[in-house]
C-alpha cells in the first residue's frame, strides 16, 4: 500500500514555528520527538519550508553567528498564523472522518472484514 507522505507537513511545521522559531534540521528533530510515526524526511521538510516561505506564511533569516554552516532560521508570519487556524478546521474534519472509519472497521457493522491480528506472529501464519 502506498502512503501519501507530507499531506499535512505545512500544518505541522507551522505549528512548530508558532511555538518557537527554528531551522530545518531542528524542526525535523522536533517533529520526530513529537510524532513518532511521522514519515517526513529532510527533503519533504525543506521543500515544505521553501513553499511556505514563497507563500509568505513563514519568514527566514540567515544565522551565521553559530559555529558550523550558515543556517536559515524560520519564523511564522501573521499570514502563517491565519493559515494555521485554517489547518485546524481541516484536520478536525479529517480526524472525525478517520474516527468514523475506525469505528466502522472495528465494529460489528462490517461483516466479512477480518479482524486485525492481535500480534505480529498471528499475521504471519
CATH architectural type: Orthogonal Bundle
- Count of domains: 1
Quick check: average pLDDT?
A: 85
* Biggest β-sheet: strands ordered side by side in the sheet: 1-2
- Proportion of strand residues: 5-15%
Instruction: Specify the structural class.
Output: mainly alpha
CATH topology: Arc Repressor Mutant, subunit A
Order of helices and strands: HHHEEHH
The CATH H-level homologous superfamily: Winged helix-like DNA-binding domain superfamily/Winged helix DNA-binding domain
Helix content: 55-70%
- Structure summary, number of beta strands: 2
- What Rg do the Cα atoms give? 19 Å
Number of helical regions: 5
> Main sheet, how many strands, which sense, barrel?
2 strands, antiparallel
Tertiary shape: elongated
Query: What is the C-level CATH assignment?
Result: Mainly Alpha
Distance between the amino and carboxyl termini: 20 Å
> Segments where pLDDT lies below 50 for 5+ residues?
none
SSE blueprint and pairings:
Blueprint: H1 9-19, H2 24-34, H3 42-54, E1 58-63, E2 71-76, H4 78-106, H5 120-124
Antiparallel strand pairs: 1-2
Helix pairs in contact: 1-4, 2-3
Amino acid at each position: 500500500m502506498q502512503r501519501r507522505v507530507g499531506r499535512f507537513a505545512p500544518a505541522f511545521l507551522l505549528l512548530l514555528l508558532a511555538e518557537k522559531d527554528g531551522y530545518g534540521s531542528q524542526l525535523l528533530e522536533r517533529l520526530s520527538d513529537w510524532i513518532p510515526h511521522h514519515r517526513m524526511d529532510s527533503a519533504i521538510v525543506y521543500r515544505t519550508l521553501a513553499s511556505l516561505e514563497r507563500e509568505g506564511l513563514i519568514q527566514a533569516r540567515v544565522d551565521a553567528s553559530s559555529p558550523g554552516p550558515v543556517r536559515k532560521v524560520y519564523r511564522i508570519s501573521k499570514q502563517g498564523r491565519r493559515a494555521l487556524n485554517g489547518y485546524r478546521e481541516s484536520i478536525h474534519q479529517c480526524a472525525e472522518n478517520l474516527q468514523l472509519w475506525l469505528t466502522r472497521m472495528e465494529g460489528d457493522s462490517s461483516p466479512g472484514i477480518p479482524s486485525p491480528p492481535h500480534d505480529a506472529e498471528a499475521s504471519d501464519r
